[in-house]
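Handout, section B. The chain below has 358 residues.
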Amino acid sequence: MGEHVSPSSAQPAKAAKRTSSRTRRSSAEPAPAPAGPTAKAAKPAKAARTAKAATTAKAAEPAQGAKPAKAAKPAKPAKPAKAAEAVEATPAAGPARRTGKPESRLAMVRRARRINRELAEVYPYAHPELDFRNPFELLVATVLSAQTTDLRVNQTTPALFAKYPTPEDLAAAVPEELEELIRPTGFFRAKARSLLGLSKALRDDFGGEVPGRLQDLVTLPGVGRKTANVVLGNAFGVPGITVDTHFGRLVRRWKWTEQEDPERVEEEICSIFPKSEWTMLSHRVIFHGRRICHSRKPACGACPIAPLCPSYGEGETDPEKAAKLLKYEKGGLPGQRLAPPPDYPGRPAPPLGAGDEE
């Protein structure tokens, strides 16, 4: 028969077998993570990366209700310089006209006064271009100068004043004889009537003397504001603007005024310059108009004030061609007076019939 085993001796063997089995399982499984904050920080890496990506994606999304930013526009090309600052390319003779905003009143006045200063340097010898020795001779010569040149008047008056030296003498002249003397000046019949009438008025109303007031001078036959201002400015030293055809043409070219009526021109020019400049300004402008800034073909290429002239380019701009257009002393030719002032740099005018006119 076999050996007998008791129940109490079998129990320890089963317990040992269970312990051995638990030991094998515990060595195969990882140790449990400790409890507390340390356990939270030890989450798997994959979960951390997933959370970070989600946060980044959320931040990249625009806020609710906010409009997405507009795409930046490409930069515009640079604008060209303003027209007011641009100056056209010009030849060596002078600058071209400026373009752009209208010139202000202040800017025009400054430019006008600068032109006057420039002309004073160009024509320091500017003077009335009628020969005279007293107010009466200047008055008569100015009346004769209408619709003709000062040269022609200067060539005519020597014989006239030799025969009629005073207002009383001229008032007693035979009309036909007077007409024949002044015939070279043109419109001789109308001018003879004016000379006879003003001479009688001087004899009867002013004691044989030429009055020194504008309001008296304009009452004489054949005498208007222009003639009165010539006499007052050059025989009495009373400042005045002489608006003849040359003066009116130039001040409009220079944009000092747009007026055509001589009295309106005189009024506007007087407002630009001090009274002390009026008489000499008139001489300088008229000198310039007769020598350089001609009516039909101004010599722009030889003009000393071209940089200040808004009408530059209306005439000849080539310097060599423009130089051939200059007249009187500027062109090497005789002047208009037979007896010019001592400081005049040109040659005296020739007597009647010897040539050389304006």
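Note. The mean pLDDT is 82. Compare this with the example in section A.
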